[in-house]
Amino acid sequence: MQSFSNHPTGLLPVEENYDPNKPSIKDFYAGRDIFISGGTGFMGKVLIEKLLRSCNKLNRIFLLLREKKSKKIEDRLREIQELPLFEVLRKQNPDVLKKMIPIRGDVSQLELGLSAEDKKQMSEVSVIFHVAANVRFDDSLKDAVILNTRGTREMIRFAETLKNLCVMMHVSTTYSNPDKYIIEEKIYPPYADWQESIKLAEEMDERTLETFAPMYMSMLPNTYVFTKSLAEHIINDHREKLPLILFRPSIVISSMRDPIPGWIDNFNGPVGLLVGSGIGLCRTMYCDPNTVADYTPVDVCIKAMIVAAWKKGSAVIQSTPISPESQQLAVYNCCISNLRNCTMSQIVEMGKVLSDDIPLDRCVWAPGGGITQIKILNTIRVMLYHIMPAILIDALLRAMGQKPFVAKLQRKIYNANLALAYFIHNNWDFRNSNFIRLASEIKPEDNKDFYYRDFIEFDITLYFRNCILGARRYLLHEKDENIPKALQHHRRMKLLDKVCKVLIVVGFLYIVLIKSDLLGLSLYLASYRTSYDLQR
Question: Which of 480, 494, 504, 511 is placed for a possible disulfide with 366 were both Cys, Cβ 3.0 to 4.6 Å?
Fold first, then answer.
């Protein structure tokens, strides 16, 4: 049977290719113990919520959590459960939250920092989602290798102790091979040896390692993509010993609709750009306006992760340990730019339009500005539109007895722009046939909860509208009932912006026309007087 979905480039066929002998997704996860690293991260939290809500017959979900100075792991678990993300679950089935079991540990430590008692408690784990990673681009090579690369090795070592393991998913990134233009769903040659890299990070001091880091990383743009690439080769090297999946999401942003539209907990990607522009602080950006922003709604990504783990795990259970299916490394590029793309300039223009309908309470100036590929022009704009207004606004805040914050925020925006420069000046062709094919293998009874191909037909303007609403609610903690008041403030800011622009133009014309005429007259009189003196 074949169905069709609307696609910007035509009709895209979706072949139904499910195996009737496989268990349903819900049945596969029923009674299982699941281990998740990175559960406090953006994707980790959505993964936990989706598993508990749509696969509520699972046995337990063990969450690897670090203790912080003022918070125990139980406190951190409680904070997760109290998030707006879990509101639907708290209303529908609050008892299922008891299946979340906190485990004290740390991916950056040997043996994951697990105690013997916790290892014994997790001995029946059969599904692992290794989501933990440090996504900062400016981390030192030593720290990035320890967490992103060695942490993956330690997770593999733990997985090898599990007698019932049927699938382990490692979450990487589509940008793990950024020097390639076409990124296929396969493993590429390594930039360095992962074992040697771990040894260097463990034994060499940070300053020495940083000295030769650029050459050692083959001139890759940052330590994040380099160490994630190394981790992929750890997974690849163990593919014949363990049932492994390599899952590469692109930029993961706000949820499309599941469990609530627009949920997000960070300013990464297009959402940060929309918020910065909506507040009126981000008025220039140095990038190629035609660069495609390859983003993926987080609920689309999480559904695909659960489906991919189900596919691999079911095949392993039904096969013998030495079957080709159980030893083959499945790679998925979770991205949608080849199906529904959006350029940086389109996002900026969309943000300007949407800001008129959904303004932010904290708007300090009318949204405006734009993108430029001219570096010197961007520098001038940063000076005029970012730095100088920030100094002025902070001075006014100090005068009113309030804490200044604008200059600090502008520094963060500028540093973020620098860190993203490599990615917003280049385009990649991500191939994602494995990712797309997953949807056709979902059994009919699972379509309601796990079918994720609906992103092809969704209204992109409505989606970004929900992104802004979600940013208001969950990032800026602004209330929807304040929108009418924010609209009034937004109109005042737009009026003030126009008045200031008129004054600037009038002042410029005054200097150019009137002052230049006075200067010309003065020069003429001076030259006339000089000539008269010479004649005398």
Answer: 494
